[in-house]
Amino acid sequence: MPHKYAKSKSWHVPKQQYKITNWSEYNQSLKNRGSIDIWLSKEAIAKWYEADQQNIGDGTPQQYTDFAIRICHEIRLVYKQLLRQTEGFINSLFEIMGLEIKCPNFSTLSKRLKALDIKCPKYTEKDQMDNSVAAIAIDSTGLKRFGRDEWHQEKHKVSAKRSWRKFHAVVSDKHYIHACKLTDRFETDEGIVDQLFDQIDVDTDHFSADGAYDSYNVYELINNKFPNAEVSIPPDKNAKIGDSNHILRGFVS
């Protein structure tokens, strides 16, 4: 077996530790993730049913307004439900709220949504990307690679630790992956941005990333690739305004 560079035995990157200083706000934000606040105004209730349901001779008259169909569709998207589950969920909400209105049945929702030509987001692979992108975000995540079994570890005296890889991705607001790259765990997030940008063929209005990309080189790459995009990158907690900072750093949202 040829000798290989024992990269797994090289310097170890420790797990990053983030100091939380606002525990009360942090705890409350976690609680808010599970809270549900849904209310309907009197105007919305009044617009739920069609005011004029006269049959004009082309079939059953519409009972629900387009407004009601769109509301049901929005709730469906938020909770990622199918039409039958959406019907049951909305009806249970109306019962709890004491409202004397009903959700359109799943068959009505399906037909009316098709007639309204509402574009539903698809989270599946597409052959073609969108011509215009409202926003994109860049980030990386760790992937644990399995391969060496216990026999291999005992025979060759190699480390029992699993090896890690980093997956870098640029994703649009419609969940389309415009660029991606797999690297080893020693590659920094900001050092791979130029290679990711080479894979992107569309323009965007907004670019966001986390604090790991807060560097002069990243801002310069963004300015060259997306000169008209708004940039949202939080600075480091010890960051300071200086003459050496990139001009975009003072205009992040």
Short description:
The protein is α/β, with parallel strands linked by helices and 253 residues long. It is built from eight helices and five strands, in the order H-H-H-H-H-E-H-E-E-H-E-H-E. Helix 3 (66-79) crosses helix 4.
Notes on the protein architecture:
The N and C termini lie far apart (54 Å). The chain is of the alpha/beta class. It is built from eight helices and five strands. Strands 3-2-1-4-5 form a five-stranded mixed sheet.
Main sheet attributes: strand count, strand direction, barrel closure: 5 strands, mixed
* Unreliable residue stretches: 1-6
Structural class: alpha/beta
Q: Can you identify the CATH class of the largest domain?
A: Alpha Beta
> The CATH topology of the largest domain is what?
Nucleotidyltransferase, domain 5
**Structure annotation, total helices:** 8
Anisotropy-based shape: elongated
| Fraction of residues in H or I helices | 25-40%
* Gyration radius, in Å: 26 Å
The neighbouring-strand order within the major sheet is: 3-2-1-4-5
Secondary structure layout plus pairing:
Elements (H helix, E strand, L loop, with lengths): L22 H10 L9 H5 L19 H14 L3 H15 L8 H11 L19 E10 L4 H7 L6 E10 L4 E8 L8 H5 L8 E3 L7 H10 L4 E3 L21
Parallel strand pairs: 1-4, 4-5
Antiparallel strand pairs: 1-2, 2-3
What keywords describe this structure?
single chain; 253 residues; alpha/beta; Nucleotidyltransferase, domain 5; 2 domains; 5-stranded mixed sheet; 8 helices; elongated
